[in-house]
Task: structure prediction
Amino acid sequence: MTHKTRDGSEWTPSYLTAIDPVTCIGCGRCFKVCPQGVMTLYGVDDEGKILGAVTQDDEDGFDGDLNRKIMAVEHPGSCIGCNACSRVCPKNCQTHQTAESMAA
Ligand code: SF4
Ligand code: SF4
Result:
């Protein structure tokens, strides 16, 4: 479905539908630019187990169990398809889809 920008140009939203948990380095860039709170950063231990959401006051690294961080699509329905998160991702690990491609 196409929409219009302010000057009447066509704009097709490209919604964030998935993030590859293997490729994502948890850098947080996408999280910072998202205007909709679609994503949540999670901590992962050595065995790949999710330890919980990473918060700013998580200074102890989940009691030392933190191995790495990954970003997850937490609220996909809130995405407006602005594509800002895709532009800043250094790993190209996000999947974006138009409304038409999701319906197909
Ligand atoms: S496309 Fe825009 S609204 Fe959707 S997750 Fe990315 S930054 Fe957030
Ligand atoms: S910008 Fe890319 S690599 Fe960084 S946390 Fe987001 S999805 Fe992961």
